[in-house]
Amino acid sequence: MAIKNKKGIFFTFMSILLVTALMLAFSSDVYITSKNRLPVVKSRIKTADNYLRSIEGAYLKNALYVSSYSAMESLTSYINQTTGLLMNEAELNIKFKEAVLNGTIDGSSLGNMQGNTFIYRLEEMEEISQNTLHIATNFNKDYENIDIILFQDETTVPWQVAVNLTLDFSVNAEIALWNKTDDVSIIFSIRDFQET
Q1: Are 131 and 139 in contact (CB under 8 A)?
Q2: Alpha carbon distance 174, 190 (integer Å)
Q3: φ, ψ for residue 146 (rounded to 5)?
Q4: Rounded to whole angstroms, how far apart are CA atoms 162 and 152?
Q5: Dihedral angle sign, alpha carbons of residues 12, 16, 19, 21
Q6: Most buried residue, 39, 78, 140, 173, by CB count within 10 Å?
Q7: Burial level of 93, CB count in 10 A (0-12/13-18/19+)?
Q8: What letters, b where the CB count within 10 A reaches 16 and e where it falls short, cover 137-174?
């Protein structure tokens, strides 16, 4: 069997060769660009992951500790100045949450809570993460979505109280996104609070 159209086979072969050469030329540039970019992407994700770990491991605990301690001092002073009587557990938790998050008790501003509220510290963290790391951090600061409970149990000694907080937040590093719900627990001493 003889090949009748040798020109057609030659042009088909040359077309396939040209398309293959173009594909290799462009795909190698993409490969080289991706290969060179990979360490930058890895570094960015590692930075964001380390940042997220520091939020969960240290920052939220420290912010909750400072805000809770200041709120408990204010609450103790409030009780001593108003009724002098202890509240039931539900009422105590309502007033404590208001003091920690808003810096108020029954809507009245507390002097030592200015710049010490938990919400203020979350806003500060959002701003610092954006300005310094260029990582968008968004805490759900809606009052109803943050759970705070003040309690004593077998983990606390008689002159200590524990605080549990549940908070939703997201960390967006543009190439990776984390949506988290974090439970934070702290314990602090109430031994040095004023009784009068």
Answers
A1: no
A2: 43
A3: -105, 120
A4: 6
A5: negative
A6: 173
A7: middle
A8: bebebeeeebebebeeeeeeeeeebbbebebebebebe
163: DSSP letter? E
Q: Which one is predicted more confidently, 32 or 79? A: 79
12 lies in a domain?
no
112 found inside a domain: yes
Predicted pLDDT at 6 = 57
How many structural domains are present in the chain? 1
Residue 194: inside a domain, yes or no? no
CA distances from 14 to 11, 18, 20, 22 (A): 5, 6, 10, 12
Residue pair 186/162 in contact by the 8 Å Cβ criterion: yes
The three-class DSSP label of residue 135 is coil
Domain interval for residue 85 = 39-189
Is the confidence at residue 149, as pLDDT, over 90? yes
Residue scoring higher pLDDT (45 or 147)? 147
Per-residue pLDDT tens digits for 158-187: 889 999 999 999 999 888 899 999 999 999
Nearest of 186, 173, 180 to residue 118 by alpha carbon:
186
Query: How confident is the model over 24-58, as pLDDT tens digits?
Result: 555 554 455 555 666 777 888 888 888 998 999 89
Structural domain contains residue 116: yes
